[in-house]
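so the lab meeting is tmrw and i was supposed to have these ready like two days ago... anyway. pasting both below. for each one the top line is the aa sequence and the line under it is the structure tokens. i havent really looked at them closely yet so no promises
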Amino acid sequence: MKNNLCDIMSREIKMLITTTHEEKIDGILYCYDRVLINATANSFGFPDGMAMFFNRHGYRIFDFAKVFAPVTEKIKENAEKLAMKNGLDIEFIRNTKAFRKEDKIASLVNGRKAEGLVHIFSALEVNKTYRPWHDKTTGKTYFKTDSTKCLTYYFYFIDREFGLCFMRVPTIAPYKVDFYFNGHNWLETKLNKRGIAYQKEDNAFTRIADFEEAQKLSDRLRVEDLHSALDIFIKRYCPMPAGWDMGFNYTIMQAEYACDIIFKRVEDLKPLYDNIIKTAMHTITPDNIANFLGKRFSVLFEGEAGSRFGRRILGTRIKHQMGEISVKIYDKFGKILRIEVTSNDVSQLKVFREVQKKDGSAVEQIAPVKKSIYSLFVLIGVFKNACNRYLEFISSFDDPTSGLKKLDRVTETVTENDKNYKGFNFFSKNDEKILLAVADGKFVLKGITNKALRLLLPENKPWQISRILKRLRLHGLIKKIGGAYKYYLTRLGKQAIVAGLAFKNMSLIPALCA
């Protein structure tokens, strides 16, 4: 059975866009894109932790503002000193919504490679803080979570390892600092050290002399180096009193991971991309989206789930959302097909890892991803799998013309042992229901079984389901794994179902309505 499964997987790989259009593709690169990390001083991240800090140092809780006033002033003075040292003016932004910091920074960097501070912005922004509170009923004094506007600094700088980064530093306790870096900028520094030639526009590589070596470098992200760099950046841009001996906890706020398929010419990508966009918008369901992310869609799910088509300055994009995780596809510079997975809460993803039990024992099991920055290395595999599942799905409707031609095979009657098995009619409600059932996204990984199909087609008796499966198999729409009672859609099955239903729903029905 294992060998049969491997054979099936190897045959499925051949149908990917990256294989069918191999001669038109310059290279493929998987790499982190936008990564946003939150840094919080020790126990400052929650009200009880702040109360413990005050008790440990003998501070009164209602002296909250008094205790942190010197720290706030020190952060402001430090920003002024850094600006003066680097010959910069701190630019105050009055209307943050009408101003794009990235545009200003891009004009200032403009090909600059030298490390150091590039610019400092300041703005009045809402930040988390705490409010002292005394409960007259219980007689206890403690902190409540609150929020307020305060002066906030944005330090943009070029680092020798991580390229262009920024740190967002609020001037109010608990001083929750945000750090941003881009994985493509980080990889660029690695390519420079290795002497590998490349061309890069914005946050994408349009050419790399050695894609294989670049991929190896991308997969070798050392989180220990990131941790050390963050410790240095915190001391530089958000200094804390030395006597407090503060350490910082670093957690992942947002992580984007991209699969870039770089085409040699714009003319090669455009027709392919146009077809993907048109078909994906009408065929991808919440079940499919869950499958891309290695999850299972449930009626109990209360978050946002669905697809949205949008127009960008540089082109179009489709975004498939499930809660705090999304998969996007868009064309970049007209020659890069980018599949991008974004997570605003990595704990919604699961991996096989060690879990500590309450009794102190440890077991290996499937569990939510930890938010620690050390999960960045583990997430590479999770994000890659999501990109590959999406790539496999959209590859099934690459070249719809070929799919329509194969409908002839699907619609003809097949005879076996003097029994006739009629072809499939896409204009028949019963046949359409069968085809939509076997194309359900949850069967992509686990396969189709008689029992699972009965749940989707309850009006059919068990012997009728068996005949339907045989009919599908004889027409080449599904295939069976040896030694198992499971079936998988074939390449013909995926192409025929997508092409046939797309023709009916997107061409014939609209024409009849007109």
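ok protien two:
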Amino acid sequence: MKNTHLLLLFFTLMLGNLHCLAQSENVLWYNRPAEYFEEAFLLGNGKTGATVFGGIQSDRIFLNDVTLWSGGPVDPEANPDISYLIPQVREALAREDYRTAEQINRKIQGKFSESYSPLGTLYIEHNQQGTATGYYRELDIGKSLATVRYDSDGVTYTREYFVSHPDRILIIRLSASKQEALNFTVKFRSLLRYTTSSEDKMLHAQGYSPYYAYPSYMGKVPDPIRFDELKGTRFSADIQVKNKGGQVTLSDSTITVSDANEVVLYLSVATSFNGFDKDPVRDGLESRALAAYQLKRAYNQDYCTLKERHQKDYQGFFDRVKMELNGSTAPDLPTDERLKRYAQGSIDNSLEVLYFQYGRYLLISSSRTEGVPANLQGIWNPYIRPPWSCNYTMNINAEENYWLAECANLSEMHQPFLTFIKNLAVTGKHTAKAYYGVDKGWAAGHNSDIWAMSNPAGDHGKIAPRSCSWNMGGTWAVTHLWEHYLFTGDETFLKEEAYSLMKGAAEFCLAWLVMDKQGYLITSPSTSPEAQYITPDGFIGATLYGGTSDLAMIRECFEQTMKASRVLEVDAGFRDSLKTALNRLHPYQIGKKGQLQEWYYDWEDEEPQHRHQSHLFGLYPGHQISTEKTPELADAARKTLEIRGDQTTGWSKGWRINLWARLKDGNQTYKMFRELLSYVEPDGAKRFAYNGGGGTYPNLLDAHPPFQIDGNFGGAAGVVEMLLQSGDEGIYLLPAIPDAWSSGSVSGICARGGFDISMNWKDGKLTRVDVLSKTGKDCCIHYVGQTATFKTIQGKIYSFDAGLAER
């Protein structure tokens, strides 16, 4: 028997070593447990999030539920009509009194958004003898499975973790190479109000979120987190174990396992959230019954069945896209060491593919709940006062989270954001009227939350206009509806879901526009998100009129709404109104430095290297500026990016990657992509002064810093943008391919018009392209001056060689 155990241990170690010898484009692995959040593994099913540290004596798993937030539904009565201030701001601007305009504009604010709450932490305390050796921890994003393995006192211990979408359950399997070697205690703790109890061989926890959570960026304030047992979203967490051998003992707060051979731990969580407009206490779901039902259903299944169902579901999305980049000779190292080596300038094409696919993994794992999109940290947050409230920041970050969805073949993951827009339009009607005096359409500010808050945030004047006095959140958001239609060709969606929302946003903009002294239509007041100007007399402010970013977003909204009305053959009169207004919008201006002007006047920026570049919206994600259609404006956008510089935060670098790709500058795009993967130490372990812009933490999460997931999504979207771009003019193949990616292949990425594209290229030249038509629409593809235009049949694949001659 002893020799059998030694042989088993030898083969286990060999399999582990073989797994590590070959670089994988789907595996993150490390040779020690995570100490900090930015080293841990993220698992999720689009609703339940688990952050796994993989400790030896003590393992901890942070738990989240995408629907667990502070506060409750928006109360329209709490937002009084202050739209009478709008004419006052406009009058001050008309007489060029920017200081007064700034002061009045600051008063046009409502409450802060609510905060995303942490559900709790699961602890697994092990009773093991000896010192651990041979530690190995991996996250296989091809399987959505985390594994921990190590040896201690002659025993090999293994743990596997996954969060299943089909079964709504977190599963942890613990096993050992020796009989009766598993001894541990399970505990649950939470930063929220909660209690624990045991019944029916199950540990049960229940609690509730705060009704008030003051943003952490406001610093220390008295009583920032407030609870009331009659308010707040309820949560339940049920934990049960299934053991082979040994004994299981429960107390009111623990589950203890003794002398077991194998244990499967089942954890089910649920909340009372029942919609953005329903009180989670009075009209909420029965979280306890829901958690218990999910647990009972999963507990009746064995581990292998649950794992198989989970991976079949997950891989149905993940496996749609494959990518290879040839030429990497990098040694196989733990992922954090690979990242450090890469940040020093070494080549590691497999790491670049891993980063791209990791973005897709994170989107699948965090965005599968209708009406509840991925937030600033996806679904993973351990803080009761999280950075920026872990909310939906509508002036770039919420939208950047979804740039990846359509082009990287994850259209289903777009749905949480698309359905959230419907909620936002409901509260946005009151916002349009009460704050801006517009009784048509709807509007949203720069912050929102699960309750679809749409008012301009700022706590009634506590935040300067540069951050809060912006009302184009809805205008930007509805462009995603049209994008979804372009990629899918789903006319039913356009007719029944999208068009009314697009029209509502356009109606607001149409009523919001006023005429300037030259007879052009502009917005007034206007800001450029989070940026400030300097007037010739030295005043620094944000409130002006005719901001370039406002008008760029309105152009995109109007053009898309007009196209949608033509497709649906409705609202011809409204379409004509939009066309008339579109032709009268104040045009783009090129400044004295050759840059695209951000402001109505060619004024200096308070911060020339500012992280936001909202006035470049027309280049990306919009489609108004391009190297082919508007070369002068494209050159001005290039100059703007040169002035902004390359050092910036993580999410901003993700945006700039896509902007440079749209300018067809592959090598500069790649430079920015490499810089996005600059190594950043965990926030709690800064052993040196970090003075750079954004980068990447050891577990490949984006460093704003701190962690924001939008950089991961923006950077991954940029990879597709280098390989494929599409629009009204057709599909452009390898438009921004860098020299470093001279040979490779990709399959399954998507183009507007309803096409899946697969390509091979060698020595920087396309060798083959396959076009799968999903909608049967006509197709036009471009490659280095060559064009192929052809009709398609839905479901058929069309193949071409390097000269775009059909094969």
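from a quick look at the 2nd one: The longest strand covers residues 234-244. Residues 415-436 form the longest helix (22 residues). will dig more after coffe
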